[in-house]
Give the backbone structure.
Amino acid sequence: MGIGDVTEALTDEIRHLKIGISLAINRKLNASTVSELIRLQRLAERWLREKGYRYLSIPPDSDRRKGSFVSRLYELFSHKTAATCSGLGWIGKNGLIINPKYGPWLSWATVLTDAPFEPDEPIRESLCGECDLCVRYCPSEALTGRKWTVLSPYDEIVHYDRCKTLKEDIKSFDEKPNCGLCINICPYARKGLGVPSRDNSLSKREKKEFKELAY
Ligand code: SF4
Ligand code: SF4
């Protein structure tokens, strides 16, 4: 968990909720991760309510169907903003939140509040350094290679339309869009899984293996 001052990212309707509580679990997003994140959100909400503070929960990234109530909450505020403002990670060249310890493996939820918490130190720019593995091996050339700063729009980092088209073309066994190569290839993802880190290149054989893994 981290606490961030998110003032700069708020729209008028939620301008009073200046603190973002960023919640993360080290698991892939699935039904049990979502229910655990919601449980943590409920605990935070109860505490805030009992102390008399206002709050708004942005749910875990589980339902982005256009028009659903939850999808409208996502548009209000991004988990990425809460995470970076709380110092829990930066936006990698793959467009995902990269946590220094767990890489891109975390699933996220956010609670915005007007409680006067002392914020953690934010991360304001990319810590990807010279690494560009995800950019080089993205099969749809969706990643621009630009380094994130708090001032960068996300669409300068990822061409989401290219990624979406490719993922829709590649269906996994349960018929959901699938790729994930930019996650699996990230050195921070290897670190998060406890696999030794490596240099900034892949052999031909490894590249082939990776493609087989991803598809
Ligand atoms: S999910 Fe696949 S297509 Fe999309 S950005 Fe990552 S590597 Fe590229
Ligand atoms: S693969 Fe490298 S460039 Fe891409 S997100 Fe991970 S650290 Fe950043």
User: Anything to note?
Assistant: Residues 203 and 209 are 10 Å apart (CA to CA).
